[in-house]
Amino acid sequence: MPFYLLLLSIEINTFNKNIYMDSYEKYNVTDTTGRSIEELEEITIVIFKYLREGLDGQVLKPYFNDKEIEHMEDVQLLFKGGFLLKNISLFLSLLAMILFIIYRKGKSLGNALFYGTFVWWGVFLLLFIASLIDFNRYFTYFHLIFFDNELWLLNPSTDLLIQMLPEEFFISIFIRIILFFLLTLAIIQIVGYILMKKGKDYNGGIVIKF
What we know:
mainly alpha, 2 strands
């Protein structure tokens, strides 16, 4: 369940156009790129469709050079894998909860939801703090782990993609992803606590008293 919530947070924030538009204005991207805000919005929509719908790289040709497009092809593969894992983790989470209910283990379900999130809290709070101290280092580690080439090393003087999405943008969206994720973790943990305290395990049935 936490893994699903993490991937959901990434998807929700990554495809939130308002975040991009705010970033373009905040970091004067129109001046950096020489593109109007309307053009930047159009390019953003094309990128969203490219990543979500698995479109051919030709749709990016009017805006980006070959190196940028090759990198975006790698990014698209990463998102395809993310979408697949999100669906699988949701299915397994729902299946697990259904089994808890079928076997009438209300308190056990509460224990799993409540205690199972603590590791995630620890890992992502540490990651959050570390990224605030030196975001560039861990952002570099991310690319070294998930990409097997150096196409992601773009030139801010010539490449539109990095001009549109400077490091400050990624810091901002990373913080949003983590905060949304931790918020949903807290909600799941509250539900788990209620089930843990109010629910009961029965051989013949689950009874939850409120």
